[in-house]
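Researcher: Quick test of sequence recovery. Tokens follow.
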């Protein structure tokens, strides 16, 4: 499961990189994907929109078991 999630994130990463952002996979646990947004994504006011309506939607389109996504601020 984690490998499939990582592959999807790798497909998304170039789009975030174009705007100066990035994303790092942290873990998959209890049907939730934990990521860390980086670069411009950290300061972006649209990060919740990007997480829920773009990244989560992409993940759920491929992996139905995923219930949510959480941005971890380490």
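Model:
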């Amino acid at each position: 499961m984690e490998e499939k999630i990582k592959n999807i994130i790798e497909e998304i990463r170039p789009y975030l990189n174009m705007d100066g952002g990035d994303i790092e996979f942290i873990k998959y646990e209890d049907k939730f994907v934990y990521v860390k947004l980086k670069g411009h994504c950290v300061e972006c006011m649209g990060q919740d929109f990007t997480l829920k309506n773009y990244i989560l939607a992409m993940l759920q389109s491929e992996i139905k078991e995923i219930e949510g996504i959480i941005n971890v601020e380490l």
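The mean pLDDT is 93.
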